[in-house]
Amino acid sequence: MEPEAPRAWPARDAGSRVCRALPRATQFYFAPGRVNLMGDHIDYLGGVVLPMSLRSGTILAAAPGAPGVGLRVQALDVGETADLTAADLTRPLGDWRRRLVALLSALGLAPEAVPWEVAVSGTLAGGGLSSSASFALVFARWLMHLGVVPALPPWALGVRLQRLEAEHAGVACGLMDPLAIDLGEAGAALRLDCRGQAGEAIPLNFDEAVFALVPSGVARQLADGGYNRVRGRLAEALQAEGFPPDAIPPAEAIVRRPPLRHVQSEQARVFAACEALRAGDADAFGALMNASHRSLAEDYGVSVPALDHLTATARALPGVFGARLTGAGFGGWALVLCARDGWPEVRGTLARAGFPGGVLAEPGGRPRSLALEEGRYGQDP
Ligand code: GLA
Q: Rounded to the nearest 10 degrees, what angle do helices 258-279 and 226-240 cross at?
């Protein structure tokens, strides 16, 4: 009989795909994706951000490889299988084989020395949910779980992954994504201080409100250059107004240029959002989401018409507290805070308005090994 992914697994569709692709697998490993609830485009200035890991993510199945073969990977979502070698490091920026071999090398491993066959798949398509960091972490934490490389603490690993993303994907990103995943907690968002390198779980305290994700239908690639371009504009603005290049202007400083207005006001919104979350105040949180979207769109220039249209449509619906783009922008998913009872109706209305495929955003914990027996007969859909 074909192995089937247990009901209780997160990212179960990906689980089913890897089980089918590698029926003799003996190991299963999961890394969540992440959604950022508040605080975009400030992690690379050492800001404090408020992401949450997701039950959507990446699953890897692994079986001992054939003799004489190193790491063989079936990347199911792109329909490619590769026996990885050091030569993959010369592939173009962003190629998944290059990123994976670079990761192994950052952990002190050559692909030829990892005698495993792996099938990998994810449920994070569409942009903005950190599929890249999830892909890197599912491999890194699995290899550490196997004991073939020493386990690194999350911040040390996060710094290495950030460097790899810059050198091998060409995206000068911040520290938020790997840490949001690696420190993820079930039932909680995470207050991440990217300068102080500290994370604090904040339980989702809304009694009657839920976070949901809705795809804008515009896929985006950070390596296209938009991300690095806005970072360049920010650097110019900081310099022109005489601020240090690597910090958010203090809350009391007068700033004039739009990118500086964004980073300064976004930081204040994160602090207010943490308070609103602790107090279970969905009205306050929703208003902060709306203001954040406006700031990202108007002052930072990272929205696109589909995201503006989607969030404006959502905001006008009964039961919606707020809506914003999430992550880097330029397309991808939008985040909606909605009354629990109202979500089915909101989901349906957004689908009819051209935005089908909304899902609840539930905290997914951190990377971990999965057992085939786990929840085999469970009820969790
Ligand atoms: C991407 C980057 C992160 C962060 C967000 C925007 O996800 O990888 O480091 O800058 O965009 O908040």
A: 110
Q: If the chain, 381 residues long, is cut into consecutive pieces of 10 residues, what is the mean pLDDT of each piece?
A: 81 95 96 98 98 98 93 97 96 95 96 96 93 97 96 97 94 96 96 98 95 92 78 97 98 98 98 98 98 98 96 98 96 97 98 97 96 62 36
Nearest CA to ligand 1 atom 11: 328
**Among candidates 182, 208, 214, which has minimal Cα distance to 341?**
208
Note the pLDDT of residue 330: 93
Can 341 be counted among the known catalytic residues?
Answer: no
- Of 136, 140, 126, nearest to 99 by C-alpha is 136
Spacing, Cα 355 to ligand 1 middle (Å): 24
> Taking phi first (over 0 means left), then psi (-120 to 50 degrees means alpha), and beta for anything else, what does residue 60 get?
beta
Domains of the chain: 12-202+363-375 (3.30.230.10), 205-360 (3.30.70.890)
User: Of 40, 43, 88, 177, which is the active-site residue?
Assistant: 177
User: Residues near ligand 1 with C-beta < 6 Å?
Assistant: 36, 40-41, 43-44, 173-174, 176-177, 327-328
Give pLDDT, residue 1. 57
